[in-house]
Amino acid sequence: MEPQRDKTTGAKRDRLSSRDLAAIARGHLAGMIILEKDPSHFLTTKAMSRSLRVSSKNIEKVKFALKRNNYPSQNAFASEVGLSRATVTSFLNGRPVDFLNFTEICEKLGLNWQEIAHQDFEEQNDPAPPEAVKSQNWNGAPDASIFYGREKEIAELKEWILTDNCRLVAVLGMSGIGKTALSVKLAKKIQPEFTCLIWRSLRNPPSVADLLADLLQTLSPQSGQQPSDSTDENISRLLQYFQDHRCLVVLDNWQSILKSGDFAGHYREEYRDYGELLRRVAEESHQSCLVLTSSEKPREIAFLEGETLPVRSLVVGDLGEEARKILQAKGLSGEEEWGRLIFLYRGNPLALKIIATTIKDLFAGDVGQFFKHSLALDVGNIRGIVEQQFLRLSPLERDMMYWLAIEEQPLSLKDLRGLFSGYKFSQVVNTLESLDLRSLVEKAEEEVGSKFTLQPAVMQYVTNHLVEKICQEIASFSKNQQFKLLGNYPLQKPQNSDGQTGQPRRIFVWIKNQLYTEGNFSNNSSVLENLEEIKASLQGKPAIEVGYAGENVEILLKALNAE
Hints:
The chain is of the alpha/beta class. Helices cover 48% and strands 9% of the residues.
């Protein structure tokens, strides 16, 4: 080992050759001292970690070095140096890599490895096994030991987080689809890559100040530092920790802090600072990852995400054939009907577990018998899954959901624009986009463009909800002399091209039946009297005020009188 002079001071210092470094990596030269400007920075190689990482302040420097050396991509550099892309990505983002790989990359990029390495060897004199120094806090996380499928989703999320170094990832999907279980399973699989892991549920959401205090205390309990009164300062402290340590934080049920009765993704007033937390986690440089689950996509995600950006979102969809394992575990028979059941509930794990329990209890587990009794889709607990999202909608979103349920067939944006002719086109687009952010609409790509519809279970719930509301309006009209939904939607299809009267819609049959069965009226004459009273009240009123009420009342009276 030849002594070299420091370029700055002229003093002699020992400098390791590549051969020496290779020897160190193989476990030789164990007693050698590495001297620097400040010799305390580096101890004997016996005390050195088997891996090194770029310090947070030098991350931008090494990324610039890659460009300066004319490497068009990480893949190109990895191929040139003979290392995996994952290793190169870890190096460039300040994650630990093998000691020899670290020095080899530095040599290739013309960097002084001692100057850019994170100088924390003093803390590693007698390093414990990696597992022993990791911190995990799973407060409130559910058991995900029984887990079906989702291999593709987990693989994609792992690549985003571990290879692409995404700082913010959203796992999205409608209620019951399995977002929470997926987040737990993902975190369990990738936890060895992190020095600390925290899982928190926002079902009963804390203020952002309380959340930050919790995270900082959990991540660094020995600091003894009290949270600041400034949210910005506490976020800065959290991000500093994210820069210095490789952390994974999972926040479940993000929709709990979002506003109801408005378009998707807007915060409740008392939780607005959560948006600032997301923005800074997404935009500021660090080596950690925040994963959130939500039935609504936060606006920050929508604005900042991209295929090559450090912010991504995954919409969790149909469980597919793996859903059969749920039905099998429940002990159901009639396997030839399982595919139909899975299709109707779009592979929603929670919905399938609920419906499977009903089939087991009431039909001895026979799926075929369940369908024979026409009970598919109309189970109370299933309605609850959709209801918790439906009740969060804005009035215009509900209106669009009602139309999609009434029409039953997929509608194009042009179709929807026609149905909402009284609104600006931008309002129609924003409403449809908001429903998409909530994972409540399905999109079908056709030759003429995209069309939109509802999942069968969602359509069933929305139709039932509309039927109940219209029946209530009819039943209570004699008391309050008011109606709204009865005039907003046609119960009969429009005339066809030949001028023939349109056929009654399915919703018309449901309303007619429910007027009798739900206890709204004591007998047929009461139904007729209420409808006649509504008809009389419409006389002389302008068409814009009457809407569809006149024709709806007429076809109901005609059908009921015929019976």
